[in-house]
Amino acid sequence: MTATKSNSGTETPPASRAASLSRSLASVRLGIVVLSLIAATSILGSVIKQGGTEEEYLSLYSEKAYHFIKLFGFDDAYHSPWFYFLLALFALNLIACTVRRIRGLTGERGPGAKNAPDVKALAAAGSGFSAPVDTLGEISRRLSASSYKRKQLSERTTLYEKGSLARYGVLVIHASVLIVLLGGLIGLVAGDRGFLVLRVGETAEAAVSRERARLPVPLGFTVRCKDFNVTFYPGGQPKEYASDIEILDGAGKVLKEGRIKVNEPLSYNGVRLYQSSYGTSNSYTFRVDGREVVLAEQEVAKAGRTAFMVVRYAPQVHDFGPGVMVAYMDGEEPKTLWLLKDVERMRTRVIQGSRISLEGITSGYYTGLEMSRDPGVPVVLAGFGLMLAGLYINFFTFHRRIYVASDGAGIHVAGMASRNREGFLEELGRLSKDLV
Amino acid sequence: MITHDTILGVSTILYLALFFLYILYFTAGKKGILRIAWYGLLATFTMQAAGIGLRWAESYQLGMGHAPLSNYYESLIFFSWTISLIMIVMRKRLYPVITFSGATASLALMAYASLSPGVERGIQPLIPALQSNWLHVHVITCFLAYAAFLVSFTCGGLYFFESRGNVPTGRTLEDINYRSIIIGFSMLTSGILTGAVWAHYAWGSYWSWDPKETWSLITWIVYALILHLRFAGGWRGRRTALLSIVGFACVVMTYFGVNFFLAGLHSYAT
Ligand code: HEM
Fold first, then answer.
1. Which residues contact B102 (CB under 8 A, 6 or more apart)?
2. How many domains does chain A have?
3. Which helix (H) or strand (E) holds A220?
4. Residue ranges of chain B with per-residue pLDDT less than 50
5. Nearest to B195 by CA among B127, B251, B138
6. SS3 of A111, please?
7. How far away, in angstroms, is A381 Cα from ligand 1 center?
8. What is the whole-number distance in angstroms between the Cα of residue A225 and the centre of ligand 1?
9. What pTM does this model have?
10. Residues 214 to 253 of A: which have CB under 8 A from any B CB?
């Protein structure tokens, strides 16, 4: 029964319902609403702390507010599902709107229409002027000189046209917005980011993700820091810092080398390495059973049956000068002891039967590199270029059409411009004045 | 020895003179005053350009040569200068009230820059992240946008006054407003895009939702909304006037507010 009811004449047939859906999807009103929501979310995201820990939020907001923030994902607003939903809806809307516009441009209602307007009436209404017949050649000459294209519409009517590209400006702008979004999506799906810290001479095969899990991000090659340099301003602020980097393959062959500075990254195989920070750290030279071992803090080395590691450095241990605290395992039990560099008796200790002595402490630079792999970047950059071109075409060039029609008595000149009407009328005015 | 401080001080005084010249024009109504004001504006603009140029040269003598576009003080001076630049570029379309509001804004920025105790006025060394040619394009385009939006804001504000005497008609204001939004929107787009390209080279990420970036995007969206509401929604008059005021509030938030209320990558600007 219900089936017959819904088939009665008042109900919209499915085909036209789809059409009306696609029309609302393409509507500028939807675009305006979605853009406003994106702006509103951005405001929230800039005001509410992003990506903090639970404790940080609870120290800033009440518990209730924190639950609310968590529930709607305001603690990571720009990556929340509903922000992605807004962006997707926005993209769909823009696509639908653009498709409709392209149809309009190529369709018969578009500006390509060949029918000349009533030139005489237009001229009389103030969008042009009338002149004697013998000025026809002069008009044609002048308009061609200002790079108007001439098109014979009929025996008596000629069209002079300029800047017809301006019609496509909006199209280019909208397409470029979509291209930038596409580039962002590619980066999101196929991109990787991380950071790595290298002391001079050290190598790494992976960066570390900045996410809380701190997972390793494989580079696909080995990177070695050959050297690091920093120069300072007279006041002591860093002026420039740079790392000399080698890219190595698995066998240790150098594939590429170069210098990374702030603002001058190095790129290899789609991976970009950026100079991001630097600092100093100590390395400690030990003699373990006659063998030399160089360790940084938290690094582990074998000593006979056990392993040991430097857990702490103190520049002054009581009055005895610099020393390091070393940790090792005694069976199941972790133990620590101090080695003092400048005290003969305390420089060498025996750990689980191995003689370990602290020979030297050297301070050296480490370099902090940012790593990013983002195949979306070229797409985004192309979108940027297109957007600027589109803005220029749309706002700073305009489509001008001048119709010249002759009837037996004289000629009538009238024009239309897609924007900057006053400027265009002035142009027509000058033409008219020059002819008289 | 004349330093840039002296020259910038003189241009501040010239802005003050310009301010009173316009007041005089509004009360006396003599056309001749406008001519003097126009040449006064040109002179002030040139003087200020010389001051900025000299500061640039002095930074080289101090061994840290860089364009004076790198800290808050320098950006205030430059903002004030771009406002005059926009006034000169758009002169054919502008009216004395609008030029007056521009000169007043320039004066306020110069006075704030040179008097506020919170503004560090010395020439400072350039941190490595700022050593990029993208910085120049980025800053110049952004401030041209802000200056154009100031014109739009003035038109929006004037719309609520009766058009009489020195206040242009609603239609005229509407037209100037649209023109300035076109310039501002194109410049802001260029500013955001060059900023993104620079961030790509400096930090390895073209967009990181830092508060200043976010607020520039919000501002950009607001002006895009104005253009679309105008075109597709047929919005005119009070509603667009109101929106241009909202748009400029976003500009103020992007330029000043973010530095004071929200922290981020751009916070070196304070
Ligand atoms: C951030 C996104 C967008 C940007 C930057 C943008 C930019 C522009 C610009 C600069 C214009 C020209 C305005 C003028 O000439 O005064 C324009 C026109 C227009 N836009 Fe957008 N737009 C965006 C999103 C959208 C969306 C989502 C829609 C619709 C669903 C839309 C529909 C239109 C329409 C219908 C026009 C008028 C076209 C014409 O000249 O016939 N735009 N847009």
1. B83, B84, B86, B87, B147, B150, B151, B154
2. 3
3. strand A216-232
4. 265, 267-270
5. B138
6. coil
7. 20
8. 49
9. 0.86
10. 233-235, 237-241
